[in-house]
Design brief:
The structure holds three protein chains of three kinds.
Chain A lengths: L1 H30 L6 H19 L3 H27 L5 H22 L15 E4 L2 E4 H23 L1 H11 L1 H6 L4 H26 L7 H15 L4 H21 L4 H15 L11
Antiparallel strand pairs in A: 1-2
Chain B lengths: L3 H20 L1 H4 L2 H26 L8 H17 L4 H23 L5 H18 L11 E2 L11 H8 L3 H29 L1 H11 L1 H6 L4 H27 L1 E2 L1 H4 L2 H15 L6 H15 L6 H16 L3 H10 L9 H7 L1
Chain C lengths: L3 E12 L2 E12 L3 E6 L5 H9 L9 E3 L2 E2 L5 H7 L1 E4 L11 H6 L13 H7 L1 H5 L10 H13 L5 E5 L7 H8 L2 H6 L3 E6 L2 H7 L2 E6 L2 E6 L6 H9 L4
Parallel strand pairs in C: 3-8, 3-9, 6-7, 7-8
Antiparallel strand pairs in C: 1-2, 1-4, 4-5, 9-10
The chains are: A mainly alpha, B mainly alpha, C alpha/beta.
């Protein structure tokens, strides 16, 4: 029974990783951009929520509603004025620019908020739990997983059921021809990154409620997110959810054997999956 | 009006003088200066190796700390567990890094483009977390070299007598000269390699993979060779670094910020894909570090911003801007006939 | 006073240091179907890229209904009223047939003559496979999708780049059979063709290009085979 409990906890943890990864997956799927600052942008969003909570005395869930449009604007501006300039066949400039951005955001947060650990307090719901058959699950972890599923479902609907989604896919396929259809790829990219930052805000909300955070934790979260995206198959959103859950379960199993092996087990699962399936679990046909 | 070739001759003369001056630093300079320059030179070695990977072979690794760390740990293993002298243990560090690079290459070379970067990063994390389980070398908290190890190091007594300084100063001088030698050898080896048939093939791959393949260059083997060799250089440098630092821990030896982030900024600022780029970059880095030392994290923010601006507006870095303006090429990579026919 | 819908004056174009167009002059009359013929590398595709705004040109060099459009970007040119069936069709693999057609109206719907229903009426076969991925179709059907997609913005000028390339003659005939209706809808048409016979059949004016210049221009009936041959291959050939 202990193993069932471990696996369930791992699946719930995977929900958080999938939330970290969903924005990354969206951006990669549309513009092949690997954003090394994504983890730090999530931490930035967490500090933004924290600031709103402290200033207005709101519940973090309400504060996230205020932070989300701000983060959309951050993503939009970032893409329009920085990242659009480095997109192209050469992978080096976007990698290095987002890497620089990661260092700037991390140390900027350190300057403004110090290295102290922070936490978002959501009230009694944090300690609440539900009996689920033979095991008990926390309400917050469950809510995290449900949010991940909802976010990925919503992104898929956006992708496959809306005019904007058509423009996303067309631009991703062939930006030049999309331009001939009146689509402005740079605008499409800016909107996509804006949406990715809204998802990052949701991830930040659960990150901040679940555990302590400080300005330096972005890169580690980024690794889990990337592992989820790559394992899932580049550009597949449901694959990203599966990837996140796989990493979460591997970490939970590793931790059950020896607490020091939690992170290591996740990384090793990543390597094993890629050795067996180099293109991930659900690769897109035309990549 | 000087011609470009006489300008180049002049700058080569200056380079030789600078090298001589650097050799004599431990004789005439202060110990603090020797230690400072040691750090600069080791960062330069790391940057030269990373530049070869990312700038010439198109392998953007953010996992070089794996090789620094394993080099350091292998050296510590040699000294503490097997009683080696630190000098041969440095070589052990390089060889260990080279062997580690084989499974890492096997795994990461399956990943395309940008995902190669993530693959190297994850690999480095796996190595860090595994080394933290190595209880004989202190596990997660790490360990120190036994007291006096560096003072008894091969060559130190002779230097002590020669310069008339304390044992620790002599040890500093020795590691300094090793770093200087490693930097010069790495620079020259890079130059010779890039002008060789294989090196030209590598640059052909960077310009056009298909075309390079059609003239018989095997991109995968060539890139793998560069990856393994730069792991060797990085491992040597890691071992050397931690002889000077004398204390090792997984977090310090496998630090992505110290051994990869700084190195990336140095290379980008100086000029990625140019041979003298890392040299220029490391100087800028050192000056910035001194000027902004009192401002803590501001220094990193400035470094990040400069890196971003360079990537946006001058992709070949400061050195690229310099050659464009002056026409001086210190270490021209193309053969003369090619340069002429292009014009 | 003629009624020019598109006029190009002294247009030059470069790829880096390589000059691809040398002072091209061209006028498309309203309602006209103009064919541009020429060998590979004559500059036809470059001319298309310049008109559609993929390549930037001096503003005044290209005018649509008297409005300078040379400096506009590709989306702006589309919105001004020029749409293109690109060489190689370039359907979006991630979109279904219907989505591929609909995306043509992404930012311009024009006078509304062409709607999804009108496109299905023009090419009934497409309606049957409207939920398939665009790239699962045969070459001829893909070309129909590409034409439908370009029509959805109800352009004043429709550019067709090499639409017969790689297709069987019987399919080419079917596709060109749609042109009378396209012209009825009010669109003026430029077709770029390597197939001279096809070009002479469909067009009421022909221009021949060679080495980045227009070497011959006239109505199909006025042009002798020899004149076309010389303009196409160069006189010395």
């Amino acid at each position: 029974m202990i193993w069932v409990d471990t696996i369930v906890q791992g699946i719930l943890l995977g929900g958080l990783y999938a939330l970290f990864a969903a924005g990354l997956s969206l951006v990669f799927g549309i513009m092949r951009l690997v954003n090394l600052a994504h983890g730090d942008l999530i931490v930035l969003a967490a500090f933004l929520i924290l600031t709103v909570v402290n200033l207005l005395g709101l519940n973090p869930f309400v504060a996230a509603l205020i932070a989300a449009p701000v983060m959309f604007a951050v993503g939009w501006l970032l893409q329009s004025y920085v990242l659009n300039r480095v997109l192209g066949d050469d992978i080096l400039p976007p990698l290095l620019v987002t890497f620089g951005l990661s260092v700037v955001i991390q140390n900027g947060l350190l300057e403004s908020f110090s290295a102290d650990s922070q936490k978002l307090s959501a009230g009694p719901i944090e300690a609440a739990s539900l009996p689920l058959g033979p095991i008990t699950v926390g309400v917050m972890p469950l809510l995290t997983l449900i949010s991940a599923v909802v976010v990925i479902f919503a992104l898929n609907q956006l992708f496959y059921r809306t005019k904007l989604g058509q423009a996303f896919r067309a631009t991703s396929d062939d930006a030049v021809t999309a331009g001939l259809m009146g689509i402005r790829p740079r605008n499409v990219f800016a909107i996509a990154t804006g949406i990715a930052m809204v998802v990052a805000t949701i991830a930040a909300l659960y990150l901040g409620i679940r555990a302590n955070f400080d300005p330096s934790i972005g890169p580690a979260r980024l690794i889990y997110a990337f592992e989820a995206v790559i394992i899932g198959g580049l550009g597949s959103l449901w694959g990203t959810l599966a990837g996140g859950i796989l990493i979460g379960v591997a970490q939970a199993l590793g931790a059950a054997v020896n607490p020091e092996w939690q992170i290591l087990a996740g990384h090793i699962a990543f390597v094993i999956v890629l050795l067996i399936r180099p293109r991930g679990l659900f690769p897109r046909a035309n990549d | 009006m000087m011609t470009n070739s006489s300008k180049s001759t002049l700058s080569r003369g200056i380079t030789a003088l600078v090298f001589l001056a650097l050799v004599f630093v431990p004789v005439i300079g202060s110990r603090a200066m020797v230690q400072d320059l040691f750090m600069v030179l080791t960062l330069l070695v790391l940057a030269l190796n990373w530049n070869m990977l990312a700038g010439f072979a198109g392998l953007v690794s953010v996992g070089q700390q794996a090789f620094v760390g394993i080099g350091a740990y292998a050296m510590f293993g040699g000294v503490i567990l097997w009683g080696w002298d630190p000098l041969p243990a440095i070589l052990l560090g390089g060889v260990a890094a080279m062997f580690l690079s084989l499974p890492i290459a096997f795994f990461t070379f399956r990943l395309n483009g940008a995902y190669f970067a993530i693959g190297t990063w994850v690999s480095a994390e796996i190595v860090r977390l595994s080394v933290a389980q190595w209880k004989a070398l202190g596990g997660g908290t790490g360990t120190s070299l036994p007291k006096g190890t560096t003072k008894d190091m091969f060559g130190v007594p002779q230097i002590k007598d020669l310069l008339g300084v304390s044992s620790s100063a002599a040890a500093d001088a020795l590691t300094y000269w090793l770093a200087l030698g490693l930097a010069v050898v790495t620079l020259l080896a890079g130059y010779v390699f890039l002008r060789s048939r294989m090196g030209l093939g590598l640059q052909a791959i960077r310009d056009n993979v298909e075309a390079a393949r059609s003239v018989g260059v095997d991109p995968l083997r060539l890139k793998a060779l560069v990856f393994v060799l730069s792991a060797f250089g990085t491992g040597l440098c890691g071992a050397l670094l931690f002889i000077q630092i004398t204390r090792v821990s997984p977090d310090a030896a496998f630090s992505v910020v110290d051994w990869t982030a700084f190195v990336i900024f140095i290379t980008v600022i100086g000029g990625i894909g140019t041979l003298p780029g890392p040299v220029v970059g490391v100087l800028v880095f050192y000056i910035l570090q001194r000027v902004l030392a009192d401002y803590g994290t501001v220094y990193l923010i400035v470094l990040g911003l400069i890196g971003i601006v360079i990537m946006l507006f001058a992709r070949k870095g400061l050195w690229g801007m310099f050659t464009e303006k002056t026409g001086i090429e210190l270490l021209p990579l193309r053969h003369k006939s090619l340069q002429r026919s292009e014009r | 006073m003629t009624d020019a819908v598109l006029s190009i004056r002294n247009l030059t174009a470069f790829y880096g240091d390589f000059q691809a167009l040398f002072g091209v002059d061209l006028t498309l009359q309203r309602g006209q179907a103009l064919a541009i013929i020429g060998a590979n590398g004559a500059g036809k595709s470059t001319l298309m890229r310049a008109i559609t705004g993929i390549l930037s040109s001096p503003a005044e060099a290209i005018q649509l209904n008297g409005r300078p459009i040379g400096a506009l970007s590709a989306p702006e040119v589309l919105e001004a009223g020029i749409s293109m069936v690109p060489e190689g069709r370039r359907l979006f693999p991630s979109l279904t047939v219907e989505e591929n057609i609909l995306i043509g109206a992404h930012s311009r719907t024009g006078n509304g003559y062409w709607t999804l229903e009108a496109i299905y009426d023009l090419f009934p076969i497409l309606k049957e496979c409207r939920h398939n991925p665009g790239t699962a179709l045969s070459g001829g059907q893909q070309q129909m999708v590409a034409i439908g997609r370009a029509l959805m913005s109800n352009p004043d000028v429709l550019l067709c780049d090499e639409i017969s390339l790689g297709l069987a003659p019987v399919i080419i005939r079917d596709i060109y059979a749609s042109f009378p209706r396209i012209r009825e809808s009010g669109a003026s048409v430029i077709v770029v063709e390597q197939d001279i016979g096809q070009a002479l059949k469909v067009a009421d004016h022909v221009c021949c290009m060679m080495e980045g210049r227009i070497t011959l221009s006239g109505a199909p009936g006025e042009l002798s085979r020899d004149a076309i041959h010389d303009a196409y291959f160069g006189v010395s050939a």
